[in-house]
Amino acid sequence: MQKTVRINEGQLLHLASKARQENTTSGYLHKKSADTGKWQLRWFALYQNLLFYYENDTTNRPSGVALLEGCYCERIVIPTSVKGKDNEKLYCFTIYYRKDGQRQYDLKSDTESECTTWIDAIRQASYSKVQEQKEQLEQKHLHLLQILDSERQAKWHYVQQTEELTTEVKKLKNEVGQLEHLSTN
């Protein structure tokens, strides 16, 4: 039984370099160490559904990467009584997975707007979000097809009614013509 997952480090490093080159969400965040529980300043770069983190913004090799597939990203709510004591946690958020055994990432930014930007970007990065949007679009498409079919049926019904009324008008005109012809004779 295989205990670890093998990855192609070269491909992962290539994606890390693309994250640095392309206009992605990036910047400094504090990451809570899984080992010590201390906050460490790291530079993060989001690329597609991968969140790379580096020692600093000049380091080329990432210290780690989080696969954001199936993750949840939420703001950590701090009770009012604690806010006065521990201001540093005001802009905290966490990335977690519902599956047991998967690492949780506790992060914090320096400002409210940075915190909101990162949370939104991470939520959008998950393929499950794209899948959800795709399903919503498919539902809208199906609804529009149903409306189109209904409109086509209504049009066919109105065309049929118009043809019947045209036939009726012709009959009435013929009858009126016959009555006028009889009345003149």
User: Count of DSSP helices?
Assistant: 4
- Rg calculated over all Cα atoms: 33 Å
Beta strands, count: 7
Q: Superfamily at the CATH H level of the largest domain?
A: Pleckstrin-homology domain (PH domain)/Phosphotyrosine-binding domain (PTB)
CATH topology tier name of the largest domain: PH-domain like
- Distance between the first and last residues' Cα: 108 Å
Which CATH architecture of the largest domain would you pick?
Answer: Roll
CATH class of the largest domain: Mainly Beta
Average pLDDT, to the nearest integer?
85
Chain oligomer state: single chain
Structural class: alpha+beta
* H/E element order: HEEEEEHEEHH
Q: What does the main sheet amount to?
A: 7 strands, antiparallel
Helix content: 40-55%
Poorly predicted spans = none
Strand percent estimate: 15-25%
Question: What can you tell me about this protein's structure?
Answer:
The protein is an alpha+beta fold and 185 residues long. The protein has two domains: 9-125, Roll (PH-domain like), CATH 2.30.29.30; 130-185. 48% of the residues lie in helices and 21% in strands. It is built from four helices and seven strands; from the N terminus they run H-E-E-E-E-E-H-E-E-H-H. The protein has helices at residues 9-21, 80-83, 112-125, 127-184; strands at residues 26-32, 39-47, 50-54, 64-67, 72-75, 92-96, 105-108. It has a seven-stranded antiparallel beta sheet with strand order 4-3-2-1-7-6-5, sandwiched between helices. A hairpin with a 2-residue loop joins strand 2 (39-47) and strand 3. The protein is rod-shaped and about 115 Å long. It starts with 8 loop residues before the first helix and ends with a helix. 16% of the residues are buried.
